[in-house]
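Thread: sanity check for a docking pose with adenosine-5'-triphosphate

Original post by kr_44:
Hi all, I'm comparing my docking run against an independent structure prediction. Below are the sequence and the ligand SMILES. Could someone generate the full complex and paste the structure tokens? I mainly care about where the ligand ends up relative to the chain.
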Amino acid sequence: MATILIVDDEITFAKNAAKYLARFGHTVATAATVGEGKTQAEAQKPEVLVLDYRLPDGTGLEFIEHIRASDPAVHIILITGHGTIELAVDAMKAGANDLLTKPVSLMELRERIESLMQQQRDASRLRYFEARERSASQSILGQSPAIRELQQRIERMASIDAEGMLPPILIGGETGTGKELVARACHYLSPRSAKPFIEINCAAMPPTLLETELFGHERGAFTDAKERKIGLLEAADGGTLFLDEVGDMDLALQAKLLKVIEDGRFRRIGSVQEHQVCVRIVAATNHDLEARVSEGAFRADLYFRLRVLQLLVPPLRDREGDAVFLARHFCQVLAQRYRREGMRLSPSAEAAIASHRWPGNVRELRNVIEQAVMLAAGDTIEARELMLSPAAAATPYGGPPSAQPTEAGSALDRRERELLIAAMAASNHNVSQAARNLGISRDTLRYRLEKHGLKE
Ligand SMILES: Nc1ncnc2c1ncn2[C@@H]1O[C@H](COP(=O)(O)OP(=O)(O)OP(=O)(O)O)[C@@H](O)[C@H]1O
Ligand SMILES: [Mg+2]
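Reply from moderator J.T.:
Ran it for you. Here is the predicted complex with adenosine-5'-triphosphate included:
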């Protein structure tokens, strides 16, 4: 069923059409002027706009240009008193989808509206299948039962559709397991894949900045707010907003997030007016959120709301056979990138990969293969050329990831450890700052801290 706005100064026609369409389950609003129509459109965000060409304060064409600028997806049916070819061409150029000449039969109007909606559904179904194919090539690789099950769960959760806000999805898992990849899959396998996928890292900026990024602000909301700014929530409308590292979100902001998840309503900073969005929130964290809740660092109500649909990305060590499978894949892809085609892994190297514990998971595996591909002496990567640290090799499951400084290349490792400690101290334990000072990404820094058993 469609949300429809009828803008026509013939009040009787508008009223009758509204009543008629409502009988078929559509939600209809009416307006009699361009000005009124703009306000209505802003508030109602219609899927279909039925527009009279001649209005008391302007023409339908001007209105089309105005609304197309903010909503490229709305279907526009223009109604004219005289169906000339020139007008039809102008209307289509301006962005109308369909043209009806007066007198308009209500039945025909309804048929046009419903056929436009059907076309849209067909198009989005088609995009869904295209996305499935596209994502097959760049997706979550693996053949283990654990990863197969994850893939199926992702497909099921992604295909859930509803009116308004979709239920959020929470992605958990250790660092480097592929949470970001999973978040993208949740979007690109969904019926809303043609809509935006927008991501933001909640740990990357101070809470006040994160708040303005998410909700946007009105002009003059604070000293630096020279212009009105649309937040990411609005930018992601109709699609997916990916909140990475949601466990690091500030408590006050968590409350606002919960409200948006519940009813899709929020206020831009400095505004009294509420806005309505329809987005799917996908949130990821490598924290144990339950522990964060009992520490009082994460709201219990938000946690319970988020975990209704939960995806746990298993650590690489629990994906039987996948480490070697992925290693071969990375070896092939990276050999091509570094012009070392034909590079392969020796049986001993594969055995070492199979028994390594991979505390940094797929990211660590990829890095290890990358340096080996670049540096290997011959065409075959030997086990020692992987430079895997024995301390991190298979230990009984559940132990902390390589809690002691590793022994292989120990002078280098010691130096690295000292550098990390110094950088963290200098930045007052601010990971982003320390990463900038060291000239590496936050992910790399966090991975290295973990590798040395250093807590942030
Ligand atoms: N199953 C997989 N198949 C192919 N590549 C993968 C897979 N899992 C992860 N990767 C790759 O490993 C790297 C790390 O993945 P990603 O950034 O998604 O991890 P993450 O779980 O978000 O880590 P963090 O918690 O540190 O942010 C990326 O380069 C990603 O493309
Ligand atoms: Mg990540």
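Confidence is low (pLDDT under 50) at residues 392-409. Hope that helps with the comparison, let us know if your pose agrees.
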